[in-house]
Amino acid sequence: MRWLNLSLLILYPLAWSAPLLRAGLLPLFDLTEISVLTGLQSLWASDVFLALVVTVFALFAPYLKTIGLALYDFGLLSPRALPVLHLLGKLAMADVFLIALYITLAKGIGLGRIETAWGLYLFTACILASLFLSLAASRRPHVSTSETVKIDHTD
């Protein structure tokens, strides 16, 4: 479980730069690939407050939760921090909702064309893996590093 969580520290940035959607104005034109990062760049140019909120939910919340869970897994963070990690996990799920909302709105307009891309599945898998790992962490007893390493000093 520890290593799966640590792999999220690599997979999240990959998922942020991977294409989530392909969007185009009319069916005859080429589709533009949209990732979390390109979407945030566009958002920063048009609405700074919304960009800040989405940046916190899509980037910082899941990454901080993953780092916190890694610290917990290796005995460097107290079990008392698990409720904070759980809250960060709830905040991180908000970005999946936002993406679903954008797809629904774009398809409802009728002028454009939206296709999901492989990055959407990777990003969703990262979020769901993080959720699974945090649930598993909250159900197991905490083992500190001092308990896992026993040194015999009987010379």
Outline type? elongated
Using only CA atoms, what is the Rg? 20 Å
Query: What count of helical segments does DSSP give?
Result: 6
Describe the main β-sheet briefly.
3 strands, antiparallel
Order of helices and strands: HEEHHHEHH
Give a short overview:
The protein has helices at residues 2-17, 36-46, 48-73, 82-109, 118-139, 145-148, and strands at residues 21-24, 32-34, 113-116. With 155 residues, the protein is mostly helical.
Tags for this model:
mainly alpha; 3-stranded antiparallel beta sheet; disordered C terminus
Characterise this structure.
The structure is a single chain. This protein has 155 residues and is mainly alpha-helical. The chain has one domain (2-14, 47-142). It has 6 helices and 3 strands; from the N terminus they run αββαααβαα. The chain has helices spanning 2-17, 36-46, 48-73, 82-109, 118-139, 145-148, and strands at 21-24, 32-34, 113-116. A hairpin with a 7-residue loop joins β1 and β2. α1 (2-17) packs antiparallel against α3 (48-73), α1 packs antiparallel against α5 (118-139) and α3 (48-73) crosses α5 (118-139). Mean pLDDT is 77; it is low at 145-153.
Set out the fold topology.
Elements: H1 2-17, E1 21-24, E2 32-34, H2 36-46, H3 48-73, H4 82-109, E3 113-116, H5 118-139, H6 145-148
Antiparallel strand pairs: 1-2, 1-3
InterPro entries: PqiA-like
Pfam families: PqiA
Keywords: Membrane, Transmembrane, Transmembrane helix
